[in-house]
Structures are given as structure tokens and as C-alpha cells.
Specification:
Blueprint: E1 10-13, E2 21-26, E3 29-35, H1 41-46, E4 53-58, E5 64-69, E6 74-75, H2 85-95, H3 98-106, H4 114-123, H5 127-130, H6 133-144, E7 155-157, E8 166-169, E9 172-175, E10 182-184, H7 187-197, H8 203-210, H9 216-239, H10 243-257
Antiparallel strand pairs: 1-2, 2-3, 3-5, 4-5, 6-8, 7-10, 8-9
Helix pairs in contact: 4-9, 6-9, 7-9, 9-10
Protein name: Phosphotransferase
Keywords: Transferase
GO molecular function, one term: transferase activity
Length: 260
């Protein structure tokens, strides 16, 4: 164990790819502990977007531990996302909260443009993915069609709204894992949802529910981010040695790129 808590707490690591999450036990109490996550959690908890924050502690080696209430819930299934209005509600709340915007600005939150996403993708691109002709075709399209959106209109975005980060507890929906929170075009989150989980034929209807007019300009922006999110996910899945999931993402990319 890399840190010590009060003597009446027991801590158990949670299996995962970050090595930063734990369950904390004290008598009948349980909490979800994360090491060195974003200080935004307190504000997100107050807004009801993330589970309730219980405490924040500093360890002797300078790490910050945040404990959130332990919720007996389940991860949202991919096929549920197009059907649930609360997915739209949570994203709208996140993207339009003045207090979250002020908080992230005070923290010096990073601002991520489409160009930065492309640069991050290039910098971490495995050779095997780079040599895939279809993925190269999509990548060329993205480089030639970078969307324009005024940075003054950037909002707080989650940055990784895949289905594994949606937690359903007693039919209440939370977003979890905020390590990627940033200022960006809200189309980044929206494109991730639509590109991964919503049939292209239903995009306009989903956007109207969110409150965006499905104009050609808006659709092209969101389409760009949908493709970009899939490319980034394919690269991550390759690095994690998840060939089955990677092939599923490539098939989804083909469906979206073909306009079906």
C-alpha cells in the first residue's frame, strides 16, 4: 500500500488499468477512493453530476486522496445510451454550468482544440494502426476538415464519456472518472456519444433533445468529433491489447464514415 489512512480505515485496491482507485472500509462504511484526481470533484458533487464527495485527505508523500460515497450501481450498457434522456440532461447540465466553468478556470484547466486532439493522436500512434489504410483515410479526412468553433464558447467537457463512465444508481445517473476534464468544444462529448452509440439516422433527433439545431455546420462539427473519438479509442484499445474491442470500434468507424 502506498499510503496510510487513519488506523480505523482499511484500504483495498480496485483492479483496473490506473492503479489509482481503492475501496475504503471503516466499520459498516464504504467509500470509493481515488488518488490524485481532479480537484473539480467537489464542485461536480455539489452539482449532482458526480457521486457525493465524503472527504479529501493529503498523504505523507504529497498525494491527494478523494473519497466519494460508495454506490451499489451498475455501468450503463451501450444500447441504453440512445434511449435515456438523462444522458442528454447530464451532458447539458455539465456543458452549461457557470459555476463549473468558473471552478475549472480557477484551477487553470487545460483548453483542448481539434488541432491538439490530432497532435495527441499523432504523438501516440502505434505503427500497426498507422499502417492501416482505412484508418489513414479517416485520419486524412480529419486533417483536411478541422472544424471551426470560437474558443470563447468552449465549455467544461468530460473528455471520455464512454459507457463505462456512466453509473446508474437507483435509476439516478452519474458521470464518473474525471481525469480528462477540460475546456473544449462541447461537440467533443456529444460526438463521442453519437459516434459510438447512436445510429447516424437518429443524430438529428438526439441533438434536438439536447438543444442544438442540426444544421449542416453543427452536424459536420459533431461528425468530426465522432470520428476523432473513435480513432483515439482504437489506438487505446490496441495499446491495451484488446483486439476484440478494437475490431468492434473499427467496424463502428466504418459505419459512421460510410454514413450508415
Amino acid at each position: 500500500m502506498e499510503f496510510q489512512l487513519d488506523s480505523d480505515w482499511r484500504v483495498q485496491p480496485i483492479k483496473g488499468d490506473t492503479g489509482k482507485t481503492y475501496i475504503g472500509y471503516r466499520d459498516e462504511d464504504r467509500v470509493f477512493i481515488k488518488r490524485n484526481t481532479t480537484p473539480m470533484l467537489a464542485a461536480l458533487s455539489r452539482e449532482g453530476i458526480a457521486p457525493k464527495l465524503v472527504w479529501i485527505k493529503r498523504t505523507g508523500n504529497g498525494d491527494t486522496l478523494t473519497a466519494q460515497e460508495w454506490l451499489d450501481g451498475r455501468i450503463l450498457e451501450p444500447e441504453e445510451i440512445p434511449r435515456r434522456n438523462d444522458v442528454v440532461d447530464v451532458l447539458y447540465h455539465l456543458h452549461h454550468s457557470p459555476s463549473l466553468k468558473v471552478m475549472l478556470k480557477k484551477m487553470g484547466g487545460r483548453q483542448v482544440s481539434p488541432q491538439q486532439l490530432l497532435a495527441d493522436y499523432e504523438a501516440n500512434l502505434p505503427t500497426m494502426i498507422e499502417q492501416n489504410a482505412f484508418i489513414e483515410l479517416v485520419y486524412d479526412y480529419l486533417k483536411k476538415n478541422i472544424p471551426t468553433y470560437a474558443k470563447k464558447n468552449y465549455t467544461v467537457v468530460h473528455g471520455d464519456v464512454n459507457h463505462r463512465n456512466w453509473l446508474v444508481c437507483s435509476n439516478y445517473l452519474y458521470l464518473v472518472d474525471w481525469d480528462s476534464v477540460m475546456f473544449a468544444d462541447p461537440a467533443l462529448d456529444i460526438g463521442t456519444i453519437l459516434g459510438n452509440y447512436v445510429p447516424l439516422s437518429s443524430w438529428s433527433k438526439w441533438l434536438v433533445r439536447y438543444g442544438i439545431r442540426p444544421t449542416d455546420e453543427n452536424m459536420e462539427r459533431i461528425y468530426w468529433y465522432g470520428l476523432m473519438s473513435l480513432l483515439l479509442e482504437i489506438a487505446r484499445q490496441y495499446k491495451r491489447d484488446e483486439p476484440h474491442h478494437m475490431n468492434q470500434s473499427i467496424l463502428q468507424l466504418k459505419r459512421i464514415f460510410a454514413g450508415s
